[in-house]
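#random but structural
TW: two for the price of one
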Amino acid sequence: MRQFDAYRKATVDTSDNVRLVSLLFDGAVNFLKVARGKMEQRDIAGKGIYLGKVTAIVGELNNSLDMEQGGEIARNLRRLYDFVLDRLLKANLKNDQGALNEAERVLETLRSGWKEMEMKQAAAHVPVARASMDAGMAIQA
């Protein structure tokens, strides 16, 4: 039974991390859309606040990469995050809608990948959760 508990804890920890990253991408995309609205309204302060929030999220995702264990995937993500950060800076400094669109496309693509991973993990855990409930019922009987 201890092995199952260790597996379940590892599964929950991994699921929580995938969910957390997925939520961070949700926040980044939503803040970017608000920043776009502020840019269109010529609200310079508001634009800066919301682009700052997107930048903070992408910066944190970038800083959390494990370059030693992540290998090529981590290197590719680092390049994408750096690209997004560059586009956000250009969008902020020059009110460049094109740069904002480029950043959004990359964030949306990454976001959809994390959402897919989240759904696959959720689907994989349903049978495990059901089996553990069945096992618990059998023990109680």
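TW: number two ↓
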Amino acid sequence: MTPTSVERMIRSALPIVRLAQAYLPLSLARWVEKRSAGRVRLPDDVAHEVVSADGVRGEWFIPQDSPKDRVLLYLHGGGFVYGMTSLHRDMVVYLARKMGTRALMVDYRVAPEHPFPAALDDCTATYRWLLKQGVPARSVVVAGDSAGGNLTITTLMRLRDSGDPLPAAAACLSPVADLTEWESVKPFSDPLLHPKAVAMFNRSYVAHNDAREAMISPVFGDWRGLPPLLLHAGEDEILCEDAVRIRALAAAAGVEVRLEVFPRMWHVWQLFLTLPQTVQSLEDIAQFFASHLLLPPDP
């Protein structure tokens, strides 16, 4: 399949974003992000509510007539240093409408002000809060992109280790699974991610902790007993390697896992809803989740 005009146009802008990640001061980049997030316009059939989940800020996106006992818990990406963006909100709304399911996006604390384990603590607390609201674990699915993909997996591992009931399934979009590889800047080829930016992201999150800690780099963790996993990665992104490693580790541990690699795609291309490959990816995720949410809830 040849690239569409939309794909070519978006790809032509990636080098600008790549340089901005590396050289724009974090405070300025966050200011731009906050300004853009305030311009989100939701469809008329989707309600928006801000909630405190035991002290963790979150945002509900509620399609009309969606059941109250089924939830998509979404953990946004952003290198562990950026908050939720307008692009993340648009993508989550698309998924929520496609699934006919309420979606809760966690506004977890970010580094460097709040390094590991702050974000993981917030994601875990939000999931537990959902269960306290009466939502059965088997009626919850979890998804995340990039750093949020990392948090999706580590949240599952922490919940399993603590004896909490696990969600029905999880999906990771371009997840990062090994932060030890970026402890020093090194050259690599990626159309969106700059090595200097990635090194800054990971240093900010890891701080004085050991990057080989399983709750930071889940490639060093125990994958047994996790719920079914769906992985999507782009052929052109360096984190495709992490997705391949995740699939191998999960499969070896007996976890039901599927990896889809999309030709020519870059890191978290799903944020661009005009791309045909985005529609293909999000519809696959929605169908994957729908098939698992059909299972009966916990007794």
